[in-house]
Amino acid sequence: MMAGFIDAIAFLYLGGYFVSFMSGNTTQMAATAAGQQWASAGKAAGLIGLFVVGVTIGSLVGRVGRGDGRLAILCTASALVFAAGLIHALADGVAPLLVTALATGVINAVLQRVSEVKVGITFVTGILVRVGQQLADALCGGPRWLWLRDLRLWAALPLGGATGALVYQQLQLSALWVAAGVLLAITGLAWLSESRG
């Protein structure tokens, strides 16, 4: 949900570029490069690169963190989104959204730690493919409701996106503070869960 929330803010501010939906940025990069719109292609490529760096950071942090690494990853993502809000408070421009591209990459590392779904949290096509495959399995006598698990995972992205867009309409880039607060709350809940157990 947080990836969708943050992505909607970036999409609206950047005019059609994403910080978590790299399929969209890849298509944008290819189409604009083919049209020799190098600045647009470069913007998409830069966001893709930052996202990959974020995934790398999240994966490394997860390896050195306690337990399954989830708490360390959430702390890192929270710090990055908080930093993005702080950067926005100090200066105008796209810099806060560059930091959020790193953060959404980090957020994707959490899913790899806690779910059987072996795709990133923002890889909607892969999740929907699994839903379709699981529906086919259910129709052929397999687990009847397994597809609902992945459908819920998919639903979190558009729900977060719609919420992020609504908050952005009211707060513009200051909506990043809302994202930072929610991530901090999620991190706190993860810490409580880990300390109890």
How would you characterize this protein structure?
Helix content is 80%, strand content 0%. By secondary structure, it is mainly α. It has one domain. Helix 3 packs across helix 4 and helix 4 runs antiparallel to helix 5.
List key phrases describing it.
globular, 197 residues, 8 helices, mainly alpha, 0% strand
The separation of the N and C termini measures 25 Å
Content of β-strand: under 5%
Order of helices and strands: HHHHHHHH
The stretches of 5 or more residues where confidence is low (pLDDT under 50) are none
Report the radius of gyration as a whole number of Å. 17 Å
What is the oligomeric state here? single chain
Largest sheet: none
Ordered list of secondary-structure elements with their pairings:
Blueprint: H1 2-14, H2 22-34, H3 38-64, H4 70-90, H5 95-114, H6 124-139, H7 147-171, H8 175-196
Helix pairs in contact: 1-5, 1-7, 1-8, 2-3, 3-4, 3-5, 4-5, 4-8, 6-7
Summarize the structure.
The chain has 197 residues and is mainly α.
